[in-house]
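Before the break, one more example. Copy the sequence into your notebook; we will annotate it together after we see the structure.
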Amino acid sequence: MSSAEWERGYAAGYHAAHRTDVRDITTDRGKVVTEKGSRSVAKPKRKVSPYQKRYGKEFKKLEKKYKKKNGSWVKDGFKRCQKAAHTATRKAMK
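Here is what the structure looks like once it is written out:
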């Protein structure tokens, strides 16, 4: 393979990978394209269950036990706090 052939192949591959005419990188990712054009459609708000609300409260109560004085988590602290919060929530929701 000659040098010129290699350069043409390299250039072709480079331009194929960096083409902007194929993929439109200017569109907003948060907008949904409808049939009539690009209008933004509001995402439906998720419904928070009573369990999720209670879990949040329990987690906030317990997280002080599993954190250091500087506010960072102790080793495996988040995991243990999460488990304790789930347990407390289950007990509270009985």
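Helices lie at 3-17, 50-62, 77-92. The longest strand covers residues 32-34. Try to locate both features in your own notes.
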